[in-house]
Every structure is written in C-alpha cells, then in structure tokens.
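Moderator note: this is an archived Q&A kept for reference. The question asked for a predicted structure of one protein chain; the sequence and the answer are reproduced below.
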Amino acid sequence: MTPGPVTRIMVMGPPGSGKSTLARQLGERLALPVWHADALFHGPGWVARPREAFIADLAAIAAQPRWVIDGNYSHARYGPAIGERLAHADRIILLDLPRRVTMPRILRRVARYRGQVRPDSAPGCPERLDLAFLIYGWRWRRAVRPGIVQVLRPAGERVIRYERAPTLERVLADLG
C-alpha cells in the first residue's frame, strides 16, 4: 500500500453501488473535496460535454493534492480521464456489488429524486426513469466490469474491492 496519508481516493463501481454516497461520506470524514465524474461529464439536459473538456477537467482535478472522485469513465474513449486519476490516486475503491443490490437501489433513487437534481448530478439534470440507463445498469457486470478490472490491474494493492456494501468505518479502516 502507498505510505503516508491517503488524500486522493477514487470510488468506482456500477450504477446504484453507492459511489456518490461513499465519496460524500469520505469527503466529510477526511476533509477532502469531492468531485462527481457524472456531474463533470453532463451539461444541462443530460447532454454530454465535449470529450476534451471533460478529460481536461478530470485531469486538472486529479493533479490536485487532495480529492475524492467518484465515477468510472474507463472506456477507451475516455482513457486519459481514468489514466490521470489512476496515476495520482492513493487508493481506488471498487464497489463490486451484484445486480440484485444495485438495480433496486437505482429504482429507489429514481423514485426519491424524480424531477429533482440530485446533489451529485450536474445542474439542469433532473432525475428521471431512463430505459437506456436501466439497461446499462443491468448489463454493467458483463459489459463494463471486465474493462474496469483490467484497467485497475496495474494499480495492484492500491485497489480495495468490496463485494458487499461496506460501512464507512470499514472503508476508513481499510484505507489505513
């Protein structure tokens, strides 16, 4: 593991795994600024921002000395976005939760925030029931997870993987 204090933490995982909640909790407890990759990716109306601007924003944040960043964006199209985060992260938390946990969470989140902008979303992006997103969440383990596991392999011991939703105290203990 990386010696010294943990001041740069990535939180990754499928939709509904609790990335944003855990990131927020870690930020509060460790007094670290929190960044949500989804909020940086989307402009108003859920329109994707230009690829270069998104990657540049994430790279600038990753170069800072203190942060928690939640989100994946590990696909080849956004390779530089994850590359910069991985290069600087002290720890990478992978919430590798099963679909039976994540899908009900997605539906509860939609019900709770429907028509409202969640705290971890971009301005102008109200929560909605989106079939394409539900399909993405359903297929995540088979379609997205293998690429994330591959991209995290070189990070070795910096990766902390949870197959069950961890408590904040457990995560803090595991961070060292």
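Archived answer notes: Helices lie at 19-30, 37-41, 51-62, 79-88, 99-113, 131-143, 145-152, 168-175.
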